[in-house]
Amino acid sequence: MQRAVAAGTKKFAIGVGIAAAAGAGGLVYALEKSVYASDHVVHPYHLPWSHSGKFSSFDIASVRRGYEVYKQVCAACHSMKFIHYRHFVDTIMTEEEAKAEAAEATINALDDRGQTIQRPGILTDALPNPYANKKAAAAANNGAAPPDLSLMSLARHGGDDYIFALLTGYFDAPAGVKVDEGKAYNPYFPGGVISMPQQLFDEGIEYKDGTPATQSQQAKDVSAFMHWCAEPFHDTRKKWALKIAAFIPFVAVVLIYGKRHIWTFTKSQKFAWKPVKGREPPKQH
Amino acid sequence: MKGLMNFVNSLVVVLPSSKTLTLSWNFGSMLGMVLAFQILTGTFLAMYYSADSLLAFSSVQYIMYEVNFGWIFRIFHFNGASLFFVFLYLHIFKGLFFMSYRLKKVWMSGLTIYLLVMMEAFMGYVLVWAQMSFWASVVITSLLSVIPIWGPMIVTWIWSGFTVSGATLKFFFVLHFLVPWGLLVLMLVHLIFLHSTGSTSVLHCHGDYDKVCFAPEYWGKDVYNILVWLVFIVMSLISPFVLGDAEMFIEADPMMSPVHIVPEWYFLFAYAILRAIPNKILGVIALLMSIVIFYFFAFVNNYTSSLVKLNKLLVFSFIVSSVVLSWLGQCLVEDPFTLLSVIFSLLYFGLSSTLLFVFMFSKKLFE
């Protein structure tokens, strides 16, 4: 009887528990999926990036093309202060290529007499900043300073998808949305009006490797490049993850076997209560 | 030297241990390992970090871009904080499940460790000096202003000025560096308290009959933690940034706050409770009580009877409501979330106090 009650309580408790968890889960799910009119922004769509898989790496050819886009288009307004030309060596370029890229840049520096001069870059230089400072940058862009792009792909919700959507998402403003001089309508940008006009156009640049430079091709490549800049260690970390993951089953076997070996004695113990002659428990009547 | 050897021996070698400790008793040893791991990775990071508001953010990026394998230490350190909380929560829930608060001193020292780890994690987060961390520090430090009489003075003192500034950052850095050593001591105290009676167990009895030595049995079991570590390492290498916020990659700008301020996942339940109450003073009190309430479990004086199943059901419901509360913590402040936050905050407190009272009540029931 007592057993049956206990079993009944247990079933009831488990039932209530599962119902509560399912109810809470359902509520969270329903609210997560609902759309609010107050969301004044279009969420970017998901794209199949070559590097978005758990163990997949960058498409380096695309990253290299992305650098060309950055250099020829974005660098006019955006800095990349954490990236130095030496970072390119043996990662996305050969040393000669990286040196040549650096040499093409003009770097502001001081000469031996303390005069400001401009010299060609060397490997240890950071990618040059197009503006002297943030105020100058804002003044040249209708009051909104172009942000540094080094960490950009990690610094926005949606990451690469967002950047691609943003760069290719320029449309005529719908009725009722006021777009000031020098600004543009872009539904992916929070608020819808961005101070960066459309930058990428079909055949806007020419790729060295002959890839047709459509707008979406450039957007894809420059997004890949920006992601590479935000974490140049990306491929290394995934490679290590794979190596360590492959190691886990073996470690598991050793540890589990070892533990069970140590515990065999304890686990196979058996208790027995044996009446000893002369010390029997009292008889029941 | 001999004394030290004996001490270590008594802690982890000859310690008489119950045979019925399940994997849930691994959480504690895991937490010890996480603390050591955080101290090691943190020391490495401290070698390159600059606690200056103009340099802090770039010095963190210097670690990511320039220091040899610096990125891996930083990834481990900030995901290590999450790992710390994963196991803290598991450890606490296990304590509630198996009523481990019968060991009063262990329970109280444990809760104090929990509070200090929360402080520690918060200060570490501020050190990055990114948008979200800067504004989180503004929000959290200004909560202290509700302390009667001394509040505003304490806040000004912590800020070392009239707002969160470079001086505040230095203050946090020094504390962030020192607190772990205090934690280490406290953890040892926690362990000594535990070993004076021995662990509770799933059988709810822990007399000194029929025990085994801690070594090698529990060494063999605690090395299972290595598997957790390997999984942790793989996960933080595959997606190091999933638990963080995009705003952590934008340098702090004291002139412009992010649209939507959210803490890290492990503070979300407390943040939801804070926001659920429109009155600032009451909100802060509720926030504090959400943790302090667990200290009251030490007042339970019931060694004889327990409604084990009811207790488990309540703990389980408490976990579910904490998870929902955490989810609510990152939702926008608008309906239906504001209403839900109130409901689930009430559930949080309702369930935790029911847990407490059921225990006292069951004593009456069986006596």
UniProtKB/TrEMBL annotation, chain A:
Keywords: Electron transport, Heme, Iron, Membrane, Metal-binding, Mitochondrion, Mitochondrion inner membrane, Respiratory chain, Transmembrane, Transmembrane helix, Transport
Cofactor note: Binds 1 heme c group covalently per subunit.
GO molecular function: electron transfer activity; heme binding; metal ion binding
Pfam families: Cytochrom_C1 (PF02167)
One cellular-component annotation, GO: mitochondrial inner membrane
Keyword Membrane tagged: yes
Residues that bind heme c: 74, 77-78, 196
Needed cofactors: heme c
One example of a Gene Ontology biological process annotation: determination of adult lifespan
Subcellular locations according to the entry: Mitochondrion inner membrane
The keyword Flavoprotein belongs to this UniProt entry's keyword annotation: no
Family to which this protein belongs: Belongs to the cytochrome c family.
Protein name (database record): Cyc-1
Protein species of origin: Pristionchus pacificus
UniProtKB/TrEMBL annotation, chain B:
Assigned keywords, A-Z: Electron transport, Heme, Iron, Membrane, Metal-binding, Mitochondrion, Mitochondrion inner membrane, Respiratory chain, Transmembrane, Transmembrane helix, Transport, Ubiquinone
Topological type in the membrane: Multi-pass membrane protein
Cofactors required: heme b
Gene3D superfamilies: Cytochrome Bc1 Complex, Chain C (1.20.810.10)
Pfam families reported for this sequence: Cytochrom_B_C, Cytochrome_B
Family annotation (InterPro entries): Cyt_b/b6_C, Cyt_b/b6_C_sf, Cyt_b/b6_N, Cytb/b6-like_sf, Cytochrome_b_C_euk/bac, Cytochrome_b_N_euk/bac, Di-haem_cyt_TM
This protein's record includes keyword Transmembrane helix: yes
A single GO cellular-component term on record: mitochondrial inner membrane
Assembly and interaction partners: The main subunits of complex b-c1 are: cytochrome b, cytochrome c1 and the Rieske protein.
Family, per entry: Belongs to the cytochrome b family.
Name of protein: Cytochrome b
